[in-house]
What we know:
single chain, two-stranded antiparallel ribbon, TIM Barrel, alpha/beta, 10 helices, 13 strands
Amino acid sequence: xxxxxxxxxxxxxxxxxxxxxxxxxxxxxYAGWIGQIYTKERYQGRISRRTNxxxxxxxxxxxxxxxxxxxxxxxxxxxxxxxxxxxxxxxxDGKPTPNYHVxxxxxxxxxxxxxxxxxxPQMITAQKLRRGNTYRKNETYLNADVFTRQFYEPAVxxxxxxxxxxxxxxxxxxxxxRTPVSxxxxxxxxxxxxxxxxxxxxxxxxxxxxxxxxxxxxxxxHGVGQVLSHWTWLSPLRKQFSKANRxxxxxxxxxxxxxxxxxxxxxxxxYDKAHPFDTLVEGMLRHEMVEETVSLMKTALxxxxxxxxxxxxxxxxxxxxxxxxITERFINTSGII
Length: 337
């Protein structure tokens, strides 16, 4: 299949692969992408430094200013914003939080066809939240009113038509913390019944046992997409898809696939290996992940769905290079360009 769009892998330009294949990254503004996505001269004297502690080890991160998103969207058609995972957009009094203001700044630098997926705050999606060195019960877990007032409504207001997806990421639950699958299905059913009807909802369940018929029936009922995630404790992408009988649930014709970490590799180890996110790391980028992803891209086209493929640096060291590797393989095996 031919199209009139263009793609240039040598300059990391992925917007023209196919109208129904949207490749983007989990977060942006990485100084490690200078020379790939970002132009060095444009950010002279405007790179900030921050310390991030992961697994008890401190890392220096060099971060570009918000306006770098303009250059990001010259290369990618879609971006997953993940800082919204840690704080809602409005506080309990309805006042804008810092995340609200940052999101509005992002929007001011976007063009009409630039697309955003936002991560729903963990205060909605997590059964337990970390407080100091312990995890405590989350009192706002699957609270429909909190989601609607403090996140959904302001997100729609700020981003408008650029907002193409809400990503509900539920944390991995250890065996002693898991609820019965039937109970999980009931909780999700009640939640999606109570929040505004929307075709842009997608859920990533990181506990393998929840990938089961009762939960899939709820997703189908509400048109909520199953996010396939290449992540530490989940099975390979193809197996996750098979558990759902290869059914695509999202009523908006959207499918989200996320490449987060190598299977079996903890977040801390993946971050340590990948930092400072400027090149591929030997042994991190798995051949099986690439092949499965390419196969799923073809499945999306066969089913008439639009796939949003979101790539994290931790999946191999450098998201732009991972994107180029996957795109090259897809083009060579599909002949669409």
